[in-house]
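Lecture 7 notes: from sequence to structure.
We start with the chain below.
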Amino acid sequence: MLHLRDIFSTEALLPDDREAGLLPEARPVAVCFADLVGFTRLGEELPASELGAVADRLVQIAEHVVSDEVRFVKTIGDAVMLVSPSVDPMLDAAFALVDAADAEGEEFPQLRAGIGYGGALNRHGDWFGRPVNRASRITALARPGTVVATASAREHAGDGWRWSSLPPRRVKGVSGEMRLYRARRADDAK
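Predicted structure tokens for the same chain:
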């Protein structure tokens, strides 16, 4: 019955609402995906058990950076998904993930992260909506060891960050070009 109710509530969206990305019961959240750079190549070089150990270590690192404001949602292959009600704690968590992966040493792949912000819907422990899709897509555009964010995430971030504008990009499933920004801590000399 719950499954049918969910189906009917989704189908009850008006076409204009669906196109605008409006979902009933949606709430504003920051969404982050962080993935291991070069994991596919690594999969060709390592036995499955060693590859699994790398993926397990990523989960351990991600679970270590969660807080009252940042929740671990799931793993998706070589990536983790986090969600937060606001952008600043998410940026802190994303940088903590990148730093922790770097601290693992040369044998552990670098991470890259993408952050989106906007209305999303929580269903059955997972999140759905525009910021989820965008964060997922832009993660692959980040360079190893960096964090990129959508324009909306940048607009909702506090003052503790420096931003570099990236060239507008076309992203699969998103109409038009997206404005993206590389985030840095305000006190970071890099």
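Points to note: Confidence is low (pLDDT under 50) at residues 7-14. The domain at 25-185 is CATH 3.30.70.1230 (Alpha-Beta Plaits).
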